[in-house]
Amino acid sequence: MTGIYYDDIDETLRAAGLTVRECEYNAGWQTRARSSGGFPSPPLAVFWHHTASSTSIENDLAWQCHGCDDAPVGNMTIDREGSVWIVAAGASNCAGKGGPATFSRGTIPADSGNTRGWNVECACDGVGGAYSAATVEAYFLASNALNARFGNLPTDVISHALGAGDGWTDRKIDPATADAVEGPWQPGAVNSSGTWSLADLRAECERRSSSSPIPPPNGDDDMPCQLIKGGDNPTVYAWNGVTLGALPPGWDEAGIRFGLISGAPVEVYAQSDIDALLAQQAPR
Amino acid sequence: MTDTFGDFDDDDAADTEPADPEQVARKLHDLRRRDGFEVQAWDDLTAGDRLALVAIVAAVLSWLRRQGSHP
After folding, report:
1. In a shared domain, residues A42 and A122
2. What is the pLDDT of residues A15-33, one digit of tens each?
3. Which of A109, A226, A230, A279 is spaced 20 to 30 Å from A66 by Cα?
4. Distance between A122 CA and the closest CA of chain B, angstroms
5. Residues 6 or more apart in contact with residue A263 via CB below 8 angstroms
């Protein structure tokens, strides 16, 4: 087979903390590709799509991997619970006519997004169906992990839609809608279809990549958890590496003032880091 | 809720890279299986059978390319 097949991309995604799943429909993704085969060179960007579907992930995958005459459609799909399903390790059909677009390592020529980009689908109807906080979290984790694997910058992402003029094609609206995004990150909409702002998307990818994860407590003292807070926000949280719990209003300040928790000083992080932890606490 | 399947259109498959014979062979094999022909799964074929299929498709692609290059 010619070209590059990322047949170990599941390891990259798992290392980023994502759940990678496989079923009878996407099985064999390691050798799946569009008719041109593998990527001619490492992808220059991650393309953000939505599936424009309202069905089960199994039905989506059956169509993406086998049912569509132009299968495989996209390189991977993120489901409504935030799990990742890899569709094709080689180039896929998804971006199609559009571009050109310039990224940190070069320009994707016009009509070459299928072989020069990694295309990520996200299960959503695109007309108001919700993107859960878990799904959005997985989307960013995956995008940044993929770009790091390819040697790109976190901001080397593009929306399938032309959006505000900086996306791929005016034939599409994805990802949409902005109003349907749940969780702390809220993208702006750039058109009446609710296409996410690519500028907002890139800024969030950048922010998350530069944000240092809050470490779990080291367990060296008597406290079963670490006390943390975000910037000027007065709320103090207890963090044990898995669960985040807000201390009752007033108790935190009193506890600190009267030395009740003096043995465990409150660590201060960026509020955005706290927000990211809160997003991870959302039910999956 | 009624199931819907995507907004894929023919232009989404457009690209400038030439075809790879093995992937085309896989695709044709998959289509034949889907349409009911009694053929083995690609993964069940011997290396020789796979190579033969690839060679046939490569020859067809080469022929098509030559036809396309004629004025």
Report:
1. yes
2. 988 999 999 999 999 999 9
3. A109
4. 11
5. A221, A222, A223
In a domain, A206, yes or no: yes
Contacts for A44 with CB less than 8 Å, ≥ 6 apart = A103, A105, A106, A107, A108, A116, A117, A150, A152, A156
Q: Any CB–CB contact under 8 A between B65 and chain A?
A: no
Give the domain-ending residue among A153, A181, A210.
A210
Residues B20, A68: C-beta atoms closer than 8 Å: no
Model confidence, pTM: 0.76
User: Quick check: ipTM above 0.90?
Assistant: no
State the Cα–Cα distance between residues B18 and A170, nearest whole angstrom: 25
d(CA A58, nearest CA chain B) in Å: 12
Q: Work out the mean pLDDT of chain A and round it to a whole number.
A: 89
Name every chain A residue with its beta carbon within 8 A of the beta carbon of B8: 68, 70, 73, 93
A88 CB near a chain B CB, below 8 Å?
A: no
Question: What residues in B contact A28, CB-CB < 8 Å?
Answer: 43
User: Residue A252 is part of which domain span?
Assistant: 226-280
Model confidence pLDDT, tens digit, residues A186-235: 999 999 999 999 999 999 999 888 766 667 666 655 566 777 887 777 78
- The CATH number assigned to the domain holding A113 equals 3.40.80.10
Domain-embedded: residue A29: yes
Tens of pLDDT, residues A90-122: 999 999 999 999 999 999 999 999 999 999 999
Give the count of domains, chain A: 2
User: Cβ contact (<8 Å) for A35 and B27?
Assistant: yes
- Structural domain contains residue A216: no
Position A4 in a domain: no
